[in-house]
Design brief:
This protein is mostly beta strands. Helices cover 14% and strands 57% of the residues. It has one helix spanning 2-19; strands spanning 20-29, 34-44, 49-57, 66-76, 79-88, 96-104, 112-118, 122-129. Strands 1-2-3-4-5-6-7-8 form an eight-stranded antiparallel β-barrel. The two termini are 33 Å apart.
Length: 131
């Protein structure tokens, strides 16, 4: 029984490892001309659907503003369509919906160009996985 549990746990661990992606992003808010750095993670729940979480900070501003984004991604080949909610760390702001799209530049690399839009922002940038 002990060997069975170890084998089952090992297979489960390999499956989790292959479904999780952690990445970094560099972006620019087109409307406000603000540079942003980001860190995000996603977990594939179905072959074409994944759940994600991302944090974008504005390190070069005096305010050091940041936002948290929760999303769902749907994969169509080299395109991912994203929809979710964004929460800015401003006490007056409520969460607001946003949508986006990202495009995988090369077939054998995971470098992506993305565009996110909500009522408060329009962001374009580049992201790549680190894990």
């Amino acid at each position: 029984m002990k060997k069975f549990i170890i084998v089952l746990f090992t297979l489960y661990s390999f499956n989790i490892y292959s479904q999780v992606e952690i990445g970094v992003a560099v972006a620019n808010d087109i409307e406000n001309d603000i540079s942003k750095l980001g860190l995000g993670t996603s977990y594939k729940i179905f072959p074409k659907v994944s759940l994600g979480l991302g944090v974008m900070i504005t390190p070069f501003d005096i305010d050091d503003d940041y936002e948290i984004m929760y999303n769902v991604k749907y994969n169509l080949g080299r395109f991912n369509f994203v929809g979710g909610f964004m929460k800015e760390m401003n006490p007056k702001m409520d969460s607001e919906p946003y949508f986006g799209v990202d495009f995988k530049l090369f077939k054998n690399r995971k470098l992506k160009v993305f565009y996110n839009q909500s009522e408060m922002m329009k962001t374009i940038g580049i992201k790549t996985p680190i894990f």
